[in-house]
Amino acid sequence: MRSSTCVRKAETNKMGSHNSPNRPPPREDNFDEELFEDNGMDGHNFDRDDDFPDEFVHVEEIVDDDDAERMDNDMESDEEGAAGSESQDNEETEPIRDDAVLTFKEHSGPVFCGSFHPTEPLAVTGSEDDTAYVWKTSTGEVVFKSDGHSDTIIAASFSYDGSYLATGDLGGFLQVFRLSEAFKRVWHFNIGDMTWMEWHRASNVLMAGSESGEVYFWRIPSGDCKVLQGHNSKAECASLTADAKKIAVGYADGSVTLWDIKTTTSVLGIPPNSPHGHTEGVLSVSTDPEGSLFVSGGSDGLLVISSSAGPLGRIDVRDPVETVAFSPATDALKLVATGTLQGKITIWDISRQSPRCECKDDELSGVTKVLWTRDLTLLAATLDGSVKVFEGRTGQLKSTLLGHRREIYDIQMHKNGELLLTTSED
């Protein structure tokens, strides 16, 4: 059975895309040069000459014998568990209708990620089948197939201006292709096990987090590199601040750090088990699209609200916070949505640090990702393969989008607000 990716028409009022922050800063011709000024390269431990390096630094992951043996044992256990539950996992429920305008079915395994090209009618999707496809959103015709990966692709996206395509897999192998040269590969790198990858939203700088805790920044295509040093805890998630010059990173040990990208120094650190910090791992981070606030959601069921000056408060959501997102900026409201795998979506008034409303739906399944639109509509991807559309101010259910037969892993909206892309286990 082929795995599917669905493209749907957005509802009326052109639900504008919002992956926090809402409005990118104006493009500056020297934005990436500013981030990569030489005085910011002292924040990592690369050996280099006094002049700025012409090539990226190669980092090789070393696995000792004990770690390798544990990994083998873990893989065997996973395989045994998978075999025992295979019949249950393969069960699929046919939706009562299909709201997709197009379904892409070339992948042969679960599809974990997808994104739109910023200006061309193209999308890219990455899969457990170790491939990424670029395809036309109007017809599903394949434009490019990415080769070279030997592990599940968990990130695939176009740069802010659409000049480049980046793909990254679980094993930490990343590739960048230049679209104007028929998707010629212009750069590649391996960081060891990778947790996330995305483009900087105002320059051709690629960012990625690692299992060992380091966060990498590469200027493309030169490969000039910066590293935010880790502390032996997985860099689980991250979000750029409104000015795109800092990044909030959440770690598996429960710590949260706000970093200055230019200087590679910590602006703020919230250690685990501190009075206003997390007690368990951080699962999601979101930044205020217009200010200095950021929030982090953890497996401890806590939502921590912070500014660059320090943590401001902590809310008990009660269930692990799988996904969190700031709403677009408005004059009157500063809202944050949280979603849990237990099927609970709450809209929080951040100024009051209290719930504004809870999204109500008797059929709401576990939530994998929430996404705001510019008109304060909230979209929620779920474990049952549906997308729930709520009025973000009241939590009222507006509609349900169907088409998938299994859980949805990623949901993205085109910046024109007219197309919605979902990727799934099916």
From TrEMBL:
The keyword Repeat applies. It holds the Pfam family WD40. InterPro entries: WD40/YVTN_repeat-like_dom_sf, WD40_repeat_dom_sf, WD40_rpt, WD_repeat_multifunction. Keywords: Repeat, WD repeat. CDD domains: WD40 (cd00200). The keyword Repeat applies. It comes from the Eukaryota. PROSITE patterns: WD_REPEATS_2 (PS50082), WD_REPEATS_REGION (PS50294). This is Uncharacterized protein.
